Amino acid sequence: MPATEAFTRRIVGLETEYGITCTSQDGSRRLGPDEIARYLFRPVVERHSSSNVFLPNASRLYLDVGAHPEYATAECDNLMQLLEADRAGDMIFDDLAQRAERALLEDRIGGKVYLFRNNIDSAGNSYGCHENYLVGRNVVLKNLGNKILPFLITRQLICGAGTIARSGQGYRGGWVVSQRADHVWEGVSSATTRARPMINTRDEPHADSERFRRMHVIVGDSNMAEPTTALKVGSMMLVLEMVEAGFDYPDLQLRNPSAHVRDIARDQTGQTLLERTDGSTITALEVQQQFCGAAQRWLAERPEAGTPNKLLEQVLDLWQRMLTAIETQDFSAVDREIDWVIKRNLLQRYQDKLGVELTDPKLAQIDLTYHDIRPGRGLFPVLESKGLIHRWTDPADVTAARTTAPQSTRAKLRGRFLTRAGEVGAPVTVDWVNLKVDRPEPTTVALEDPFATADERVEQLLAYMEDNRESYVAE
C-alpha cells in the first residue's frame, strides 16, 4: 500500500444482531425466540447443514447466542460500499422472515415474524451492533482506545438510536439518546458480554497478524437511517485516521470515561460535565465540537484514498449541523437524518395526539415499531418510502449488494469462490481468511491480505472445482 494511503484506506465492517419475535393474528405471542429462529434459519440449514454460513456476497449470516439472528457485512474499504452492504443484510433477513411465515402457515401454526434492528428487548436485555476497523499491528489497542474514549462516549449525541429508558420489565420514563449506553460498563477490555466494554481488545485480526489488528467497537447503537450510520462510522474513521497519522487531534483524557456514558445519554443538550485527568471539566458537546473541528482540518489535508473525500465532506457537514442542532436545541436541520431526533419527534407527535405520558405502553410500541425492518409495516421503512427520511444509497445498488461482494477488497475473492461453489455443487468450508474445497482432496487457500482482489491460488481453486464438477453432481 502506498505510504499516502497508510491512514486513509481502511477495511471496515458492521455486525448487526436483530431482535426476533412471532405473534398470531390477534397479537398474542405464539413461539419463543428459539423456536422462531429455527423457522427463520430452516432454509439456510437445509442448504448448508449449518446456521453459520458465508453468502455469495461474502457476508456472514448466523444465529448468535440468545437466538439473535446476526449479519456481518463483508470487508468494505469505502463508506458508501458499507452502507449498501449493511442495507442488503436487512433485505436478506426480511426474505427469510417471509419464508418463515409461509412455513408457519404450512405447519398450521400461522403468525407474523418480526425482526427488529435495535439493541434492547422488552425485558431490558441488550444485543449489539458492532463496528470493526482494521488498524496497523504497531497500534496498541488499549492505548488507542483510551485516546479515543472521550470521542466514543460522546458520539451517542450525534448518532444514537434513542429510546424510552427501561429498567428490567418496567419503564422509568425519560428519554435517552442511546439504546446501548445503559449496557456498557468498561472502556477498553477483552470481555464482550460479562463487562461489555466500549472497545474489545481481543486480538482477532482476521488477517495477517504481523501487519494488522482489528478494532472491535461495541458501544454503538443499531441505526435505521443511512445518514446516521454514515455519521457513526464516518466520524470514527476520521478520528482513527487522525490518531494513526499523528495529526493534531484533541487530547482530552478523562478521569473515568465509562462513568459518564449513561449521564450523556440522558442529556440531549450535551451539557453533561466530564472530569479531565488534569482536574478541569469539559462538556460532552465541547468534546464533539473539538473532534469535529480537528476532522475538518484533517480533511483539508487528507490524501484521496479509500472513502472519497467528497463523501467524507457529507459526513462532516452532517456532523457540524448536528452539533449546531444540539447547541441551539433546534433540530429541524437534521430531523430527517438522525435516528434519535426522528424518533423523538415521532413520539412527541403521538404524545400530543393521544394525550399520554412518555411511559404509556402505546408509545413503547411505537418506539419498537420504528425498528421493524419489514417494508410497508415498520415505521422507519414507511417514513423512508414517503421521503420523510433521507437515504444516501441507490436502492439498485443495495439490491445488487445482496448477491455481489464488494469488489475492492478480499471479499471479491470470497464472493467468487462461493458463487462458483454454488454453481457446481462443490462442498466447501469458508471463514474470514480461509477458502477450502472439501473434496475430493481437501485444498485450502489462506487470504491474509484484506486488500487483495486477485490471487492466482484462488483461480486454481476455481479451476479445481470445475474439474471435479461431475463428481459433485454424482453425489
Keywords:
18 strands, alpha+beta, 17% strand, single chain, Creatine Kinase, Chain A, domain 2, 475 residues, three-stranded antiparallel sheet, 2 domains
How far apart the termini lie comes to 44 Å
Main β-sheet description: 8 strands, mixed
**Main CATH class of the largest domain:** Alpha Beta
In helices, the fraction of residues equals 40-55%
| Beta-strand residue fraction | 15-25%
Based on DSSP secondary structure assignment, what is the total number of beta strands?
A: 18
Strand order of the largest sheet: 4-5-6-1-8-13-12-11
CA radius of gyration: 23 Å
Walk me through what this model shows:
With about 475 residues, this protein is α+β, with helices and mostly antiparallel strands. The protein folds into 2 domains: about 5-400, 2-Layer Sandwich (Creatine Kinase, Chain A, domain 2); about 410-475. Helix content is about 40%, strand content about 15%. The protein has helices at about 35-50, 80-105, 140-160, 225-245, 260-265, 285-300, 310-330, 340-355, 360-370, 380-385, 395-400, 410-425, 455-465, 470-475; strands at about 10-15, 20-25, 30, 50-55, 60-65, 70, 110-115, 130-135, 165, 170-175, 185-190, 195-200, 210-215, 275, 280-285, 430, 435, 445. α2 (about 80-105) packs across α11 (about 395-400), α4 (about 225-245) packs across α7 (about 310-330) and α12 packs parallel to α13 (about 455-465). The longest helix is centred in the first third of the chain and has 28 residues, at about 80-105.
